[in-house]
Amino acid sequence: MSSYLAKITGLFKFGPREITLPDFLVIGAAKAGTSACITNLGRHPDIFIASKEDKIRCLKDEIFLYDFDYLGHGEIKFFSEKEFYDKGKDWYAAFFNKSWRKLKGEKSPDYLYNYENYNKFKSRTCDRIKDLLPDVKIIILLRDPVNRSFSHWNHIQDQLYKSSEKYHHKSFYDCITDEDEQNFILKNSDYYQNIVGYLSVFGKEKIHIAIQERIITNMHDEYMKMFDFLGVKRKQKLNFTIVHKRDYKDRELDNKSLEYLKEYYRDGVSKLKDLLNDDLTEWRQY
Questions:
Q1: Does residue 4 form part of some domain?
Q2: CATH number of the structural domain spanning residue 191
Q3: Whole-model pTM?
């Protein structure tokens, strides 16, 4: 009996846990519906999404080091923040170790922006992702650049996160005309060069670009396209929803800011249309 039990036990002997890394990333743009996207994708029974609870679990004894700006959402920011990137692959993989036989993904809008943290990393975000996740699939959501920037400014005025302190209680025009090279309210809507970087590294077949305005108008069809891209079965009866629809509290886009931004984004939008072979008719004229 003992030899029989030993034989059976041996059949179920577990070795070291296999490193589990994501199969896809939702990388931005910020304020373009990424929270809704990752939430709705996570409703698919064959998809696992790293959550805020996974973040709290993985930070463990270090959790007291972080404020709500980081802890209050599910964004890992592994590839965009050096303090997390330096923790290494095993730390990152721990976010996905509950994903048993599911497609795994996470959402961090900062990944889209290759201009950030050059001085800390000496490399582009897209290159760091490629080094660790050479076969990863990438979803990028885009929104009319002016609307995205205005939404970002409104979010800052409501939340007053420490990371955006320099823009607190300032007018929209003053914020977008700030000449800081990393003015994220302004530059996070300048999509063209960032997308060129990702296309050059991953190729078109690994990247799916969705337009937020189209998702809102035809949510079902747009998510079916994402399921097709990710290689999971279409699920017709999932309940897709809008997440984080914010009240601007009577703050309105002024004409001075609108004209400034239309001029600022005109060339980039023109190049983006050519790059994507898409007229982007849902956006305003630039």
A1: no
A2: 3.40.50.300
A3: 0.89
